[in-house]
Amino acid sequence: MRHPLRAFVLGIALALTPACAALQLGETQIENPMSAARTLDQRAYALLNAYAAVIEEATDIVRDPSAPLAFKRALGQAERVATPAAETLQVAVTAYVRARSDFEAASGASQPAIERAAAALTIAAQRLSQAIEAARAPVSELEGLVRARRG
Predict the structure, then answer these.
(1) Residues 79 and 123 reside in one and the same domain
(2) Residue 136: pLDDT band with limits 50, 70, 90
(3) Does the predicted TM-score (pTM) go above 0.90?
(4) What backbone torsions phi and psi does residue 19 show, to the nearest 5 degrees?
(5) Residue 26: DSSP 8-state
(6) Does position 31 have pLDDT exceeding 90, yes or no?
(7) Distances (CA, A) of 36 to 5, 33, 96, 142
(8) Same-domain check for residues 124 and 63
(9) Beta bridge partners of 23
(10) pLDDT of the residue at 110
(11) Residues pairing with 107 in the sheet
């Protein structure tokens, strides 16, 4: 392992992170990333990170020889639906971030340039919102299967 201290600290942080919306520990509140996300791109990144974590756990389940074959097939089917949705979401968030950057860069430009950048940002935001909604159900279904196996 290249960074054992980082892995240890990350393991502790993940072990202490709740699966619910928030956890109050004294003065510190730890929130679920999807619940804590305030902006459109934060929601997209939170969903993509949730997808990545669930895929990692699903891979471990599929490699487990004691897992029932029917359950492995169900995980495979759920993954085949969730992965294209997550890939589309990744493309949409990249386009949104680029459009937002272009809009911010155009703030000192001419009025037509600002209007074009604003229109592109609006379209990118709409597409990102649609991609988030389209990915939410498949990722949740995959997550539900993984949670069912974990118990």
Answers:
(1) yes
(2) very high
(3) no
(4) -90, -10
(5) T
(6) no
(7) 27, 5, 20, 21
(8) yes
(9) 30
(10) 87
(11) none
What is the model's pLDDT at position 19?
Answer: 45
Question: How many Å apart are CA 47 and CA 86, to the nearest integer?
Answer: 8
In this prediction, residues 118-138 reach a mean pLDDT of: 95
**Amino acid letter, residue 99:** A
Q: Which residue, among 143, 144, 139, 141, has the nearest Cα to 44 in the 3D structure?
A: 139
Q: Does residue 65 share a domain with residue 17?
A: no
Secondary structure class of 28 (helix, strand, coil):
strand
Instruction: Specify whether 23 is located in the same domain as 43.
Output: no
Structure tokens at 19: 């699966």
Query: Where in the sequence is the domain holding 26, given as residue range(s)?
Result: 1-31
Q: Show the CA angle centred on residue 81, arms to residues 75 and 82, nearest 5°.
A: 80
The pLDDT value recorded for residue 113 is 86
Give the Cα separation of 20 and 99 in Å (integer).
33
Q: Which residue has the tokens 């990118």?
A: 124
Residue 148, pLDDT score = 86
Q: Is the Cβ–Cβ distance between 103 and 118 less than 8 Å?
A: yes
Give residues with Cβ within 8 angstroms of 116, minimum separation 6.
Answer: 106
pLDDT reading at 61 higher than 80: yes
